[in-house]
Design a protein that fits this description.
Elements: H1 10-24, H2 30-50, E1 58-68, E2 71-81, E3 86-95
Antiparallel strand pairs: 1-2, 2-3
Helix pairs in contact: 1-2
């Protein structure tokens, strides 16, 4: 199973807009666009879980937190990052990739 968290990023939004334009121009079918998005979900999740080792330190005031469907969501206020940057509000979404069921489809 690949999470769809990254479809709402700049890269994910650009991909979806491009696919929508291709569908409207009848270059691709909606089924192919969905297949591309599913491949994107799998590829971005794999790349971020296996090919990155970066860490970030920050501190702030916890506003709200939620745990639903094995996903933690934290909203923090007055957040200060390790290198001195400050943000009024930060939302952190954390998914345990080890608990995700691997996809059985062929690439």
């Amino acid at each position: 199973m690949s999470y769809q968290l990254y479809r709402n990023t700049t890269l994910g939004n650009s991909l979806q807009e491009s696919l929508d334009e291709f569908i409207q121009a009848r270059f691709i079918s909606p089924q192919l666009a969905l297949t591309v998005l599913l491949k994107f979900d799998k590829a971005i999740n794999d790349a971020l879980s296996n090919k990155t080792r970066n860490k970030m330190s920050f501190k702030g005031h916890l506003n709200t937190y939620r745990f639903c469907d094995n996903v933690w969501t934290f909203v923090l206020n007055d957040v200060e990052f390790k290198h001195g940057e400050v943000a009024d509000k930060v939302k952190v979404v954390a998914v345990d990739g080890r608990s995700a069921v691997p996809s059985t489809s062929q690439d």
